[in-house]
Amino acid sequence: MKKNTNTELLSKTFFRLLPIQILLALVSAVNGAISGIFGSNFVGPAVMSAIGLYGPISMFLMAASMVFVGGSQILCGKYMGKNEPEKTQDVFKLSLLTVTGFSVVVCVILLLSVFTSLTRVFTSDAVTRETLNKYILGQVIGILPLMLGQLLPAYLSIENQSGRTTISGIVCIIVNVLANLLFVVLLKMSAFGLALASSAGMWALLCVQAAYFFSGKSFFKIKHKAADWRGSLDIIKIGYPGALSNVYQAVRAVILNAIILQFVGTVGLSSFAASESILRLFWTIPYGMIVVSRMLMSISIGEEDRKSLADAMRVAMYKCVPLMCCVSVLIILCAVPFTRMFYRDPADPVYGMTVNAFRIVPLCMPLSIICMHFACYAQASGKQFLIHLLSLLDGVVCAAGFSALLVPALKMDGVYIAYVLNGIVCAIAIVAYSWAVRKQFPRNMEELMVIPDDFGVSENERIDISVKNLDEVMIVSQQVIDFCDSHGIDGRTGYFAGLFLEEMAANVVDHGFKKDKKSHTVDIRVIHKEDDEIILRIKDDCIPFDPEERLEIFDPNDKMKNEGIRMVYKGAKDIRYQNILGLNVLTICI
Question: Does domain 459-589 have CATH number 3.30.565.10?
Answer without folding.
Answer: yes
